[in-house]
Amino acid sequence: MKEQIVEKIRNAGVVGAGGAGLPTHVKANATVDTVLVNGASCEPLLSSDPHLMETEIDTMIRGLHAVMDCTGASKGIICLKGKHAAAMASVREAVSRDTTGRLEAFELKDFYPAGDEHVLVHEVLGKTVPEGGIPLAIGAVVSNVETFCNIAAAMDDKPVTHRYLTVTGEVGQHMVVKVPVGTMVADVLAHAGGATISDYKVVDGGPMMGRVLPDTARPVTKTTSGLIVLPPDHTVVARKIMDPDRVRRITTSICCQCTHCTDLCPRNLLGHSLHPHKLMRIFDGLMSDELIVETAKEALLCSECGVCEKFACPMMVSPREVNAQIKKIMRQQGVRWESDGSEPVTNPFRSDRFVPTSRLIQRLNLTKYDTHPAYAGEFVPDRVTIPLAQHIGAPAQCRVAVGETVSAGDLIGEIPEKAMGARVHASINGTVESVADGMVVIRSC
Ligand code: SF4
Ligand code: SF4
How many Cβ atoms from other residues are within 10 Å of residue 155's Cβ? Predict the structure, then answer.
């Protein structure tokens, strides 16, 4: 059964919908005790996961059972925050109806980043994932809500063709909307009533970990969870669009070594050897080369959650960005984290140092956009631009030619032989208009 489920997930092109897009067939091809549904939806403003748990709970649970059957897990735990009352009621009712006795609902506290895999696992299972490790190391697999819905569809041989996302910020109508993969951001914003300000930036993802798009002529991918339209000088946007060298210079010269970033760092609180305040000293020229190498490795443990940058630092500088830059250098040099084998020791004050989501929203100046938008149905554009690389691994190899007629769900990109990757499928019925720069453009007919 395992091979069949993994094959169906692979064939359907399922990737992690909540993160960087790890092909899900890779994750499902494991043996674990527990499967966790990550419904924390911990990034402020994003609402599509609670919407799915409220309205598509049976589909999600079907996907959860498939992964449990595949991995041999005896327990499936659906984790979400109690503040999503309708979703929580839907989950509890579905769990009570489940006759297998294998499912549980777990109510998370409302803090950021409750959805970080390491944090989630600790909250739910009371275990700490080893430094530099993944939940598999403690016998768990964690996936996002929409991923489980896509897995359920995969069991019926239906590939991933659509994405649910939140559209919010300075747009005419805040909404959760379902769109075909490859819908242009500009088309989604127009569907939401357009931007309400003339000069704006669009954040792809959540305000903490999302990235600012260079322009709106970009497609929605399998991993796009939200589009947030904000003024260019908004707290959320300003640091994300600043020249990275300038951010590093400002951060490392202004840092007063107060250690607040380390005190509130979610990974440090779990006992991981990550001390962002020490990393800020890498560039001050005062450390020995030996100490620099030892300290710099710690950046490999950073999840880039942004708590240090957006909440902890009184100097308003960006340890997260500095860590990201150090991490990049470490990876380019082939440096990997090597655990000394010791058990991480959780900080006894950890739960007192959680960052409440409500305070984070205030700090980020997002209160006026925190509207919990309703589902606006499906939007179908005239044309989609589908990237062949929407996932971790090798880009898919194009399997269609210009002028070819395709139907939604047809294979248009195949995993290269012997590579890790994900299949890509047409998301609307139409004709292939162009294949260039790793994108397949389909015009509806
Ligand atoms: S971004 Fe900052 S707070 Fe988050 S894990 Fe990295 S160092 Fe810690
Ligand atoms: S919180 Fe800011 S000022 Fe304090 S040590 Fe960290 S980076 Fe430096």
Answer: 17
Secondary structure letter of residue 416 according to DSSP: P
Taking only the tens place, the pLDDT of each residue in 186-214 is 999 999 999 999 999 999 999 999 999 99
Does 312 map to a domain? yes
Task: For residues 301 and 225, state if they share a domain.
Answer: no
Shortest-distance Cα residue to atom 6 of ligand 1: 302
Question: Ligand 2 pocket check: which of 277, 284, 311, 325 to mutate, most ligand atoms within 8 Å of Cβ?
Answer: 277
Domain that holds residue 63: 2-155
126 and 166 housed in the same domain: no
**How does DSSP classify residue 63?**
H
pLDDT in tens, 155-165: 999 999 999 99
Query: By alpha-carbon position, which residue is closest to atom 3 of ligand 2?
Result: 255
Total structural domains in the chain?
4
Is residue 213 within 8 Å of residue 201, measured between CB atoms? yes
CA of 265 to the centre of ligand 1 (A): 5
At a CB cut-off of 8 Å and minimum separation 6, what does 171 contact?
Answer: 189, 192, 193, 194, 195, 196, 229
Nearest CA to ligand 2 atom 1: 313
CB of 113 sitting under 6 A from ligand 1? no
* CATH number (domain holding residue 111): 3.40.50.11540
Residue 82 located in a structural domain: yes
Tokens in use for 287?
A: 């450390």
Q: Residues 181, 320: one domain?
A: no
Is residue 324 in some structural domain? yes
CA–centroid distance, 206 to ligand 1, in Å, is: 16
Cβ of 308 closer than 6 Å to ligand 1, yes or no, is yes
pLDDT, average across residues 28-40: 96
Ligand 2 centroid vs 255 CA: distance in angstroms?
5
**Could you tell me the two tokens for 376?**
């606006």
